[in-house]
Amino acid sequence: MALVMSGLEFETALGASTPDKITLLGQDLAQDVMGEVGFGELAFWLATQRRPTRGQTRVFEAVLAALADHGFTPTAIAARITWLSAPDAVQGALAAGLLGGGSRFLGVTEDTGRFLHEALPAEQPGDDAGWDALALGIVRARRAAGKFVPGLGHPVHKDGDPRTPKLMQIAEEEGCLGPHLRLFAAIGRVHAEVLGRTLPLNGAGVCGAALADLDLPLPLLRGFALLARTAGLIGQLAEELRRPMANEVYRAIDRGAIAVPPDPWRS
Fold it and tell me: How many CA atoms lie within 13 A of 264 on its CB side?
């Protein structure tokens, strides 16, 4: 469909409006989408322009649930503190929380999906032994290069992230357990042989593997993590209304400030 403005045309398969109708993804928004398509299904459809199957939708929505909220993380604290400063602009508080989605929080989802995708060979193993051998070589190469394996380890869930086996189970039930998840599972089985200790496969990492197996665009994987976290941040702000804590955090830090002599930066 083309949007016409001052003689220019811009093609889009997404939303477009006429005086009496709104279309979205080739559907009549009011008649075919509203009340008929769930939000998770729609988000998948918007990103890929292909309607997901029931199983794909279940896996995708499980990922969104897994990433929605993890308590008083830096993203949640940033949102609450920003709202304390500007309660008239909820968009600022949400944006502050989302801007914290980087390499340490939320970004691991994209990092893991990309890492696994780049590591997959053209001809994939046919059994667990083959996946284990592939994973072993990958972990050894990462260690030799002095690099971490994305998705491996968790600061809290030392003995296993509860999200990881559950998402693996859902993906298998829905026929969506693809090569990215298989390689990730193999890394979980063999990494101790190289690293000398056992680390958990974390939830953010398994989410990245699952999204990659759904053939979602790799450059957007962090975007899906941010989509999930938006719901969590709204929950954080709603709780801030009922049980405020941002002012206490601010005051505790402010009262704990100690003046010291300047320490000029040296490179």
Answer: 1
CATH placement of domain 52-247: 1.10.230.10
74 in Cβ contact with 105 (< 8 Å): yes
Name residue 152's beta-bridge partners: 201
Residue type, 176: C
- Sketch the domain layout of the chain as residue ranges: 52-247
pLDDT in tens, 91-143: 999 999 999 887 777 778 999 999 999 999 989 998 999 999 999 999 999 99
H or E stretch at 10: strand 8-11
In contact, 75 and 98? CB cutoff 8 Å: yes
Distances (CA, A) of 166 to 120, 149, 198: 23, 21, 19
User: If DSSP codes are grouped into helix, strand and coil, which group holds residue 120?
Assistant: coil
